[in-house]
Specification:
It contains ten helices and 14 strands. The protein is α/β, with parallel strands linked by helices and 388 residues long. Strands 2-10-9-8-5-3-4 form a seven-stranded mixed beta sheet. A three-stranded antiparallel beta sheet has the order 11-12-14, covered by helices on one side. It has a two-stranded parallel sheet with strand order 1-13. α4 links the parallel β3 and β4. It binds pyridoxal-5'-phosphate. Keywords: Amino-acid biosynthesis, Aminotransferase, Pyridoxal phosphate, Serine biosynthesis, Transferase.
Length: 388
Amino acid sequence: LNRDEPHHFGAGPAKLPSDVLKQAALDLVNYQGVGLGLGEIGHRTETAINVINDTKKNFKELLNVPDTHEVFFLQGGGTTGFSSVAYNLVANYAKKHDGKKAKLAYAVTGSWSDKAAKEASRLGFDVDVVVDTKEGGYSNIPSYSDWKPIDADSTAYLYVCDNETVNGTEFKEVPDKSYLPENVELVADMSSDILSKKVDVSKYGLIYGGAQKNVGLAGLTIYIIKKSLLEQPTDKEMASYGLPIVPIALHFPSAVKANSTYNTIPIFTCHIMGLVTKKLLDNGGIDAIEKQNNEKAALLYKTLEKYPGFYNIRVANPAVRSNMNVVFTLNSDDVQKRFLSEASEKKLTGLAGHRSVGGIRASLYNAVSLESVKLLVDFINQFAEKNQ
Ligand code: PLP
């Protein structure tokens, strides 16, 4: 089971710790000596329930999830979150407001929040875009004073994508009361930065994210929801309000009630997340993770800044630069191609930018070590010195 690993900076699905994968590989074939692997047992067996509960426990401990919030898993990835969030929170708003159809506020700060807003709109929800940075190439997050005010009387939630994986911006501060009305819930897509830093969960109505970047494999989506947001009208009431009934596979109350086993949860994928979160806890928990992620990103940005005009960091404002996805360009396609091919010769891989923006993207998720980042930095220095 040994492998010769490159230093992989891919944006996702991303690298996982090799000791976790080795353990998982064994558990895929024969879990705890029962003669069957974790992909082969019923999702409601005691063994499977223990896997779900252990994974949940580790996750809650790492992120310090308060009792006011519930953690559950669904299939479907981040994209399914675009619709599940809108369906469920519109239903909850209707429950609290005599069947009223909610407005949904979206901050469009990159291609993922843009997709989320468009999906909610496509499904017929009443979307209000409060900021849209498309014209500036999604390269900054303006201050809240420049966002359109939220209609506090009719809005269920403000949706943000905490870390824009393609464009390289990240929210470093949660919108405070000066912008976000008290009765409007904050919803965040944390698909690409969940468990990469401390988060005050109590400030959010809902957080969700696919597992495949920082915490595991594709196939599992993590949701953290304020318990008071789980109440919904009956299907009959929803129909009488003229509102869409939530598809059952996306129905949050059913998922919570069934401890994430309303339908078949990928138990093996859940187990990988259990192993990853156990390792993170053993290595010092969220404080240690955040410290290491800050260190990795600071080192990389500082190195790129040494060569202005040769390396161009897409996000000029350091206050909103992503710690997870460092996006930069070189001055021509040819030089970029050479950068990628010489990097690959040094076993520095996964560095090509997203197809929509090009350039270079170094993703520094939890499993990327400081040592790998130091090697990348050495290469960046050498390449600039040789070519600028
Ligand atoms: N949201 C963010 C921030 C992402 O980075 C991604 C994928 O990279 C998605 C949503 C979509 O995730 P999925 O492909 O799991 O649907």
